[in-house]
Model the fold of this input.
Amino acid sequence: MDVLIVGAGPTGLTLGIDLARRGVDALVVEAAGKLFPGSRGKGIQPRTQEVFDDLGVREALRAVGGPYPPQLFWKDGERLKTQPMFDAVPADEGSPYTDPLMVAQWRTQEVLYARLLDVGGRVAFGQTLTGLEQDAEGVTARFADGSAARTRYVVAADGGRSAVRRAVGVGMTGESVDPSPFLVADLRVRGLDRDHWHVFVGDDGNGNGVALCPLAGTDDFQLGAKLPEGTEPDLSLAGLRRLVSAYSHLDAADVTEVRWASDFRPRAALADRFRVGRVFLAGDAAHVHSPAGGQGLNTSVQDAYNLGWKLAAVLAGDAPNALLDTYEEERRANAAAMLDLSTGVHRGEVRRGEATVQLGIGYRESSLTAETRPQPGPVRAGDRAPDGRNADGTRMFDAFRGPHWTLLAPEPVKGFPSLPAPESYGPGLFLVRPDGYVGWAGESAEGLREYAARAGAPGGA
Done:
């Protein structure tokens, strides 16, 4: 086996899809007996929609999701005001998706799981990891049922309490974001319209209260609640009925069913390392966010998207092992920035909108980035490669879709299939990585071949 992925959440399933479409022998193992049943991470940010477009699942997710409704604030059974959840971000040719998409996490995982099976991937449920042993050639993973698996690499996608992270001795550094207990639950509720995200705030001035958001594509509402410090959350039907009736005008009986519930204390934490030898940490195993701002799931998916092509290139012998070092270099710095952002949103210091759509994420400072033009234009090496149409009418996202590199050049370059860039990119040549970022940019093809060899792109020598 080439890669063992521990955890069948959005991170593990995304990585499984990316590796399977590249012909990598990978197995996803999951300790639970089935996919996660709750709605926890329900926001798919625009940059993640671009990732899912490339992986072939965006349209399926749009079919089971929907837009975010405006928030409606209530007081003593009266409607006070409505306001959008997000500041509007205008769409343009380079960024066609700018609105977050609401999809319950369990729906997202169903879509990803189906896609993984479509591209030949595998998931083994009921497999609890108990230990790892590394050597120069690979990793032996041991499971609670006494079985073992031999693999060349392991990726931890098993959440904030990651067994893999503990097995390789990586610590996490972090802080409490809010001392109050929080809970989230999927409920069936009577008496509320499904056109608003209903918010009921208490009178204590501490922001305690409940919010009930209609989950797009389902008959459920997601309950989010902040409780007074020292409160012990009660996740039973009776407890959630008391909570809803205490803060809202609804009767306890209007909560008719609890489908899933969980409590948590918001915190922000970052793993000290994202790589130990042949073991990589991704998603919540590497960074834990406050849910405010919808950054956790999205940052996690992009971890997988960054790592997949690099593992495949090294496994195929197309790139040196040093390429794998750029995963931690690029993603740990990015995760740290996203943690600061999530915490800022939670504390009311940052608005949801342009800051949270993740379209500005890039890798300009990465050692894998080469900007060789003395005067770069609007698109630089390290930037996300924008959408747009070139003079031939070719759409960039269509050209990028798939596991390949893409060279944008005004004239043919020997050994590199290419097409012209849109005028919006500015002058130059652009080598776009498989994950949709510009890896190299130059005035001419000088240095292109050397970069391609270092990064594992076809045509390198």
